[in-house]
Automatic annotation (TrEMBL):
Extent of the signal sequence: 1-25
Name of the protein: NAD(P)H oxidase (H2O2-forming)
FAD-binding FR-type domain mapped to chain residues: 1116-1222
Family listed: In the N-terminal section; belongs to the peroxidase family.
UniProt pathway: Hormone biosynthesis; thyroid hormone biosynthesis
Designated gene of the protein: DUOX2
Length: 1397
């Protein structure tokens, strides 16, 4: 074969010089033959892809993978490739070829090989078979670190292979598998066009040789059934055999046989070019002209190559150009790894497959190989000859000529290439060449080509340039060795990130500062908005002060040491009262001044003389601080005139300010006095009748004793709570309780309950109680009279407790009332009421609805008579088995969370349908890619479908469809927040992943980057990746990503609860950056840097729906609405009544968005309508809690116009639906409103009463309205609405219960006295003492769970009860928790709808 092979190479040389077009002018007739394609397709008309670029290699022997599919064999199954290279291929250079083959033949052989096959292109996704260098390697690890790894990336494979053992992985050939000159002209039409000049048939690099006419001998016919594809075995055999022939240097000579000296940097001159120092050097000073290249070719023609054996010179074995950041690698070790990557068979398997004889032991491989080499190699394979690989085995058997295995492989390949090529030049059937031309081609040699191309004298070259025979011109000076040649440049490891660390860190820190900068901006905005708000508040205060100044004096009240003084207004009223008002003119305190009471006034004599102390008997003192002595003097004059007018004694004294403060009895000091009183009281119970109680006229403190259950027994006495109260307040000890003493007793309890009743109200209660008991003519009460007066409240008093701070004794918790025993259930009929299944109290002992210190009575009929037991028989429930119970629990769970389950399922289905990451992500080794790509799919989905949560018109419409049963539309805003929070967390993770990616990309070779970014990078041989700033600021995704982080930081900071409350306008404006956000998202996701654009898949449908919803709102937004009436109500509430637009249809419980033209036309705020759908106008009740609502109150406080009020107009958007509008879909509905959260229920209550008055058929038969408020003075406007509802509610549809939360809990004695007053008022006047309504007023917080339990008993036939709550999150959470607890039972199901503010 070796004799035939040079002839084949000569023929190839002739073929490569033939022009692609026939000779002649441009006007030559059209071609009469088929032109071969550049990409190699359609050579074989039966199998078009054979030999084409990109077609897979064709194996001669079955694949040998670790798993039989694609996983390469590695250590420890096979030896380390570097150790194997050192053991088998190491040796001295300078042994000449036995056949005198020239270096030019070796060079041309590599050229032929590159024309046939190329598998160096890395595969994607990147897979590595890195070469671990043994510690102490003299070239790669001289420092014995033991952690040196040479990267080796696996080659590209056919994706249709590597799927099963029957279809193992096959590599693809990146060039055509034909001898067609693709190494010169390229393997594609575009590559060929780049190489051609399109002028005179010349290449871009220079002129082509002229055509030569030769006569060729006859040739055998073409075999279309023969597969000419390149085999991986041929690639390995030819590359390795050529590598043993490469010398350490190359001679250069001219035509006169003068061998030149080579000038080397830092070494001087040398006789030849050093191979290891000449790789990929574009500007070699020794090859800077065409003449120098000719001299190099002449030198290679005269130089004899290395011996064809196992030895590979160090220039290839130790100093081959390395991949990536490594400047050097081991060519032999890399070739061994390439063979493992291709799944090459073992040496023995290949011999058997090709029908060759296999050696029986290691010494049979090659008798000319050094036995020590064989022993070292055998040791690496554990003396197992069957594990010897094809590459080292083929080299070990070669000496002078290729061994039998390599010979058979190469011969087989060239025969298939020639006989299976339809365009082979000797095939006369293809019509390419005539017989004369074929003969001419056969006679051409590479010498002829060199003479024609390089203009070399023919006498300077031997006839066969591949072999040098004795007598040939210009013999080489000597067989070249490493002596006299410059040393190879040692290994260097490039640091791609060198010099970028500081800039990279600064960039990351700057990006991380986006939220801080946004926080700073938000703080500045909030500061100015707060200052503006405070300015408005001061203006409001000044106006209030001016109003209060007409009837009072302004001052600061000193509450006590270590406490802050606060502004008050003092008014002297005509009814002998001194009234203290706060800044909003709400009554803080009323002091009765009646003769012969002495008024003691103490003035400060220093520190500006602006303080005074007003001593008040039986109450805490009043300490006032004025701005100046003149203002104090004005008040003293008014007080003196007041005392003279009402014949009150006034005693004025002076003392220092510090002494004045010490003399003052503050509210806290009075409370401590009362606690001391009770501690003494409990220590001396038998002698209570002997105590002088003038010093302790009231009952106070928080005493932890249950009076009803605790009686005091000593010396034969047994004290009950009424007896103790009677004895304590019999101030003169005469055994009678006068009306004034009774008033003092009641007043002492009311006083400690935050003065929730005025003295006038209390006096009315006392007179009513005396009149109701028939004692209106009595001035004093005996014990029997006192007990008779409180006969209806015995049960409350028995469960009354007192808590004294520090009163100790360990009695506390054992007397805590049982909550269940305090629940009085809702009356179902006049004759019966319900009770707990566990048994109830007798009617006389059943308390009002309790819980945490609460009284509760539901149903108006219960007001007139005590609740009685509900005696209707309950259906006996059959005991279920464990499986049935679990099944029932599961059913209840599904029923409770039906809509959440459906919504989550739909959300997940859409996500997994579109957002599943590509399968190749899991195969990559870059963690940052996995993180960034996975989160990218998530945020693309979330940022798209978050738009649906803001489609208010769509949600309002869908509430009326069947979807409302399965989708929790009430949670749209909460769902929006949760998606937003999840999206921002994923965005941060996405950014963190890209920070890792940028670093990895900045230090990764182009072979890896070309896999990840096939449309951006091409592995063209450059080793330097882009710097980090290119990724951040010079790519569209990078720059848009940085801007996205900035926009997100601004939006999320301003959307936080704190800044939203302080600057809603800032939140409103910054949230409109969503337009820029989505523009940047589209740009960021559409560039396709990492993967194909996919954001539009998620974004298109939600965006279209959102735009349509916005267009609906815009169609009605800009209609000016006139305000008919504006009223400023207490508690900072503004009532607006405005025109109802034509065609404006809404339901009770819905809400609108308004913009006040006087405050800006683009800032909209949501408010619930308080008007009913049947009313001709719309109304809102807006509480001033922020800058906008405060300014709104100011705008409507002073209308303009002559003769009639003209108010600023509004823009209106809505109505929008929420869960409260579904109240009519339930037979029984519970409305729970907290604070200003009662606004939707005002509309619902009015709507219900109106429909019932018309006799409309409604599913809703009963509504329980629970109003939770801090004080009875808040939201007085709602009391008017409730009063209207009570007057018009003829069918007893509404049951209203008001809870005042500022009062004591746990049935404290002071709260019990409020109960007594309230119940007496209800009994006598059928109205509440606190609100003036027929509705019952309770004290404390509502016990939702006992209440819902009682609802199930009163309405056993109802299967679903609607619960609608609106108010602070804490209250709605308590309602939700109670519903969830009750829904675990197999009874009525409570469906909760809520709205927070």
């Amino acid at each position: 074969m070796l004799r035939a092979r040079p002839e084949a190479l000569v023929l190839l040389g002739a073929l490569l010089t033939v022009p692609l077009e026939p000779a002649g002018s441009q006007n030559a007739p059209s071609l009469t033959w088929e032109v071969q394609r550049y990409d190699g397709w359609f050579n074989n008309l039966r199998h078009h892809q054979r030999g084409a670029a990109g077609y897979r290699l064709q194996r001669l022997v079955p694949a040998n993978y670790a798993d039989g599919v694609y996983q390469a064999l590695e250590e420890p199954l096979l030896p380390n490739p570097r150790r194997l290279s050192d053991a088998a291929m190491q040796g001295r250079a300078g042994l000449p070829s036995r056949q005198n083959r020239t270096v030019l033949g070796v060079f041309f052989g590599y050229h032929v090989l590159s024309d046939l096959v190329s598998v160096e292109r890395p595969g994607c996704p990147a897979e590595f078979l890195n070469i671990h260098i043994p510690p102490g390697d003299p070239v790669f690890d001289p420092n014995r670190s033991g952690d040196v790894v040479l990267p080796f990336q696996r080659s590209r494979w056919d994706p249709k292979t590597g799927l099963s053992p029957n279809n193992p992985r096959d590599l693809t050939n990146e060039v055509t598998g034909w001898l067609d000159g693709s190494a010169i002209y390229g393997s594609s039409h575009s590559w060929s066009d780049e190489l051609r000049s399109f002028s005179g048939g010349q290449l871009a690099s220079g002129p082509d040789p002229e055509p030569i006419s030769l006569v060729t001998p006859p040739w055998a016919e073409y075999d279309p059934f023969l597969d000419p594809s390149i085999s991986p075995e041929f690639l390995a055999a030819s590359e390795q055999f050529f590598s043993t022939m490469v010398p350490p240097g190359v001679y250069m000579r001219n035509a006169s046989c003068h061998f030149q000296n080579i000038v080397n940097k830092d070494f001087g001159s040398s006789p030849a070019l050093r191979v290891c120092n000449s790789y990929w050097i574009r500007e070699n000073p020794n090859l800077n002209s065409a003449q120098a290249v000719n001299e190099l070719l002449l030198g290679m023609a005269s130089q004899i190559s290395e011996l064809e054996d196992r030895i590979v010179v160090e220039d290839l074995r130790d100093y081959w150009p390395g991949p990536g950041k490594f400047s050097r690698t081991d060519y032999v070790a890399s070739s061994i790894q390439r063979g493992r990557d291709m799944g090459l068979p073992s040496y023995s398997q290949a011999l058997l497959a090709l029908g060759l004889e296999t050696p029986k032991n290691w010494s049979d491989l090659n008798p000319e190989v050094d036995p020590q080499v064989l022993e070292a190699t055998a040791a690496l394979y554990n003396q197992d000859l069957s594990r010897l690989e094809l590459l080292p085995g083929g080299l070990l058997e070669s000496h002078g000529d290729p061994g039998p295995l390599f010979t058979a492989i190469v011969l087989d390949q060239f025969v298939r290439l020639r006989d299976g090529d339809r365009y082979w030049f000797e095939n006369t059937r293809n019509g390419l060449f005539s017989k004369e031309e074929i003969a001419e081609i056969r006679n051409i040699t590479l010498k002829d080509v060199l003479v024609a191309v390089a203009n070399v004298d023919p006498s300077a070259l031997q006839s066969n340039v591949f072999i040098w025979h004795p007598g040939a011109p210009c013999p080489q000076p000597q067989q070249l060795t490493t002596e006299g040649l410059p040393p190879c440049v040692p290994l260097t490891v490039s640091d791609y990130f060198k010099g970028s660390g500081a800039g990279f860190g600064i960039t990351i820190v700057a990006i991380c500062c986006f939220p801080l900068v946004s926080l700073l901006i938000a703080w500045v905005v909030a500061h100015f908005r707060g200052r503006e708000r405070r300015k408005l508040q001061r203006k409001d205060k000044e106006s209030m002060k001016k109003e209060a100044a007409k009837d009072g004096v302004s001052a600061m009240e000193w509450p006590g040491p270590r406490e802050t003084s606060y502004p008050v207004t003092i008014q002297l009223l005509p009814d002998r009262c001194l009234q203290v008002l706060d800044r909003r003119l709400s009554v803080l305190r009323t002091i009765q001044l009646r003769p012969p009471q002495q008024v003691n006034l103490i003035l400060s004599s220093n520190r500006g003389r602006r303080t005074l102390l007003l001593k008040i008997p039986k109450e805490y003192d009043l300490v006032l601080l004025f701005n100046s002595e003149e203002e104090r003097g004005i008040f003293v004059q008014q007080l003196q005139g007041f005392c003279v007018r009402w014949t009150l004694g006034l005693d004025v004294a002076e003392m220092g300010e510090k002494e004045l403060f010490r003399k003052a009895v503050t509210k806290q000091q009075r409370a401590r006095i009362l606690e001391v009183f009770f501690r003494h009281l409990f220590a001396q119970v038998p002698w209570l009748c002997l105590l002088e109680t003038e010093t302790y006229p009231g009952v106070g403190g928080n005493l932890g004793w249950t009076w009803g259950e605790l009686s005091f027994c000593s010396m034969g006495w047994r004290w009950t709570a009424p007896q103790m109260m009677f004895t304590m307040y019999d101030l003169d000890g005469n055994g009678f309780l006068s009306k004034d003493e009774f008033f003092t007793m009641m007043r002492s309890f009311i006083e400690i309950s935050n003065n929730c009743l005025s003295k006038a109200q209390l006096a009315e209660v006392v007179e009513s109680m005396f009149r109701e008991s028939g004692f209106q003519d009595k001035r004093e009460l005996t014990w029997e009279d006192f007990h008779f007066m409180l006969r209806d409240h015995d049960s409350e008093l028995r469960r009354t407790q007192l808590c004294v701070k520090g009163g100790g004794g360990g009695v506390g918790d054992i007397f805590k009332p049982n909550i269940s025993s305090r629940v009085s259930f809702i009356t179902k009929t006049p004759g019966e009421c319900s009770c707990p299944r566990g048994g109830g109290l007798p009617t006389s002992e059943a308390p009002e609805l309790g819980g945490p210190g609460l009284k509760k009575r539901f149903g108006k009929k219960a007001v007139l008579s005590p609740p009685r037991l509900y005696t209707e028989a309950l259906q006996e429930k059959m005991q279920r088995g464990l499986l049935a119970q679990k099944l029932q629990q599961f059913k209840r769970f599904v029923e409770n969370y039906r809509r959440h389950i459906v919504c989550t399922t739909i959300f997940s289905a859409i996500y997994y349908a579109f957002a599943s990451p590509p399968t190749e992500i899991a195969q990559t080794t870059l963690v940052g890619i996995i993180l960034s790509r996975g989160t990218a799919a998530n945020v693309s989905f979330m940022y798209s479908y978050i738009l649906l949560t803001m489609c208010r018109n769509l949600i309002t419409f869908l509430r009326e469809t069947f979807l409302n049963r399965y989708v929790p539309f009430d949670a749209a805003v909460d769902f929006h927040r949760w998606i937003a929070m999840a999206a921002v967390v994923l965005s941060i993770l996405h950014s963190a992943g890209h920070v890792v990616n940028v670093y990895i990309f900045s230090v990764s070779p182009l072979s890896v980057l070309a896999c990840i970014f096939p449309h951006v990078f091409v592995n063209d041989g450059s080793k330097l990746p882009q710097k980090f700033y290119w990724w951040f600021f010079q790519t569209v995704p990078g720059m848009s990503g940085v801007l996205l982080l900035l926009v997100l930081a601004i939006m999320y900071v301003f959307a936080s609860h704190h800044f939203r409350r302080h600057s809603f306008r800032g939140f409103w404006l910054t949230h409109h950056l969503y337009v820029l956000l989505y523009v940047l998202l589209i740009i960021h996701g559409s560039f396709g840097l990492i993967q194909l654009p996919s954001f539009y898949i998620y974004f298109m449908v939600p965006a279209l729906i959102f735009v349509g919803d916005k267009l609906v709102s815009l169609s009605r937004k800009k209609v000016e609405i006139s305000v008919v009436k504006a009223e400023l109500l207490p508690s900072g509430v503004t009532h607006l009544q405005f025109q109802r637009p034509k065609g404006f249809e809404y339901k009770s419980g819905q809400w609108v968005r308004i913009a006040c033209l006087a405050l800006g036309t683009n800032e909209y705020h949501p408010f619930t309508l308080t008007s009913a759908p049947h009313e001709d106008t719309l109304s809102l009740h807006i509480r001033a809690v922020g800058p906008w609502t405060t300014r709104l109150r100011e705008v409507y406080s002073s209308p303009t116009g002559d003769g009639y009020a003209i108010y600023p107009k509004l823009y209106l958007d809505g109505p929008f639906g929420e869960g409260h509008q579904e109240w009519h879909k339930f037979e029984v509905s519970v409305l729970v409103g907290g604070g200003i959260g009662v606004t939707p229920f005002a509309s619902i209550l009015k709507d219900l009463v109106f429909k019932s008055s018309l006799g409309s058929q409604m599913l809703c038969k009963k509504i329980y309205f629970i109003w939770v408020t801090r004080t009875q003075r808040q939201f007085e406007w709602l009391a008017d609405i409730i009063r209207e509802v009570e007057e018009n509610d003829c069918q007893d549809l509404v049951s209203v219960h008001i809870y005042i939360t500022q009062l004591a809990e746990k049935f404290d004695l002071r709260t019990t006295m409020l109960y007594i007053c309230e119940r007496h008022f209800q009994k006598v006047l059928n109205r509440s003492l606190f609100t003036g309504l027929r509705s019952i007023t309770h004290f404390g917080r509502p016990p939702f769970e006992p209440f819902f339990n009682s609802l199930q008993e009163v309405h056993p036939e109802v299967r679903k009860i609607g619960v609608f709550s609106c108010g602070p999150p804490g209250m709605t959470k308590n309602v939700e928790k109670a519903c969830q607890l009750i829904n675990r039972q197999d009874q009525a199901h409570f469906v909760h709808h809520y709205e927070n503010f």
